[in-house]
Amino acid sequence: MIRWLIVVVLALLLMSGLTAWLRRFGFGRLPGDFEFRAFGREWQLPIGSTVALSTIAALVAKVL
Prior knowledge:
Blueprint: H1 2-17, H2 19-23, E1 33-38, E2 41-46, H3 47-63
Protein name: DUF2905 domain-containing protein
Keywords: Membrane, Transmembrane, Transmembrane helix
InterPro entries: DUF2905
């Protein structure tokens, strides 16, 4: 259980760090990606991009 928690936290950190770079390729603007402003901050929920990147990663892992 703790191993999965670590993987999820690392994936979220990686996704947040690469957000600007991935936006050049259209990730972060897919249907299902939500952006809203609350409490004076801009929040992002990249659900659609996460599904797309997970699918790509699974296909790469299956090929390798």
